[in-house]
Amino acid sequence: MSFKKMPSLTAATLLLALAVAPAAPQPARAAGSLASCRAIGDATQRLACYDALAAAAANVPAAPPAAIANAAPATPAVPEDPTARFGKEKLPRTEEQQAKDDAEQDEEMHSTVASAVALPYRLFAVTLANGQTWVSKEALTFDPKPGDEVRVMHGLFGSYSMVVGRSRPAKATRVS
Question: Domain 103-174: which topology?
């Protein structure tokens, strides 16, 4: 018998009974189990509780808690050098990365010139010792030479000022 030939009340009742009845108790049990796992203080026991819930949901046997306790700990992440991320907020990135970088941003960065390329109108592309490349948006008063000290500071409205050696501050932008 097809659904088209069944009376509409009977078809709706059948669909409701098949779709809702078996699934109704499950979320309530899962929510209660998740809350009980969340309340566990020890990290390995909490993980074992979550693994048991996931295994029960997928009908897969869970790993014993002893196997989880004997597992090798994860290696901690190596923190990034603060000068390596200076000016990085202008490079393309995700919103999560932007929020994280903005919270950790320093006010200025110091480095030395590794190389410099002259551009028209006394503008320069300056590669620093830390690998960053900055391009001046204003003319520099002195030509940058390898080994010269560089100071890059935050300016207004997300801009940057770069001081190379004895030159006056010039607006700059990071390109890599």
Answer: OB fold (Dihydrolipoamide Acetyltransferase, E2P) (2.40.50)
Three-state SS annotation for 52-107: HHHHHHHCCCCCCHHHHHCCCCCCCCCCCCHHHCCCHHHCCCCHHHHHHHHHCCCC
Structure tokens at 22: 């078996």
Report the run of H or E that residue 38 belongs to, with start and end.
Answer: helix 25-38
Q: How many CB atoms lie within 10 A of CB 172?
A: 27
* Average confidence (pLDDT) over 35-44: 83
Structure pTM? 0.44
Domain ranges of the chain: 29-59, 103-174
Q: What is the pLDDT at residue 8?
A: 47
Cβ–Cβ under 8 Å, residues 97 and 114: no
| Per-residue pLDDT, 92 | 72
Neighbour count for residue 173 (Cβ, 10 Å): 14
Range of lowest pLDDT (1-15, 33-47, 60-74, 152-166): 1-15
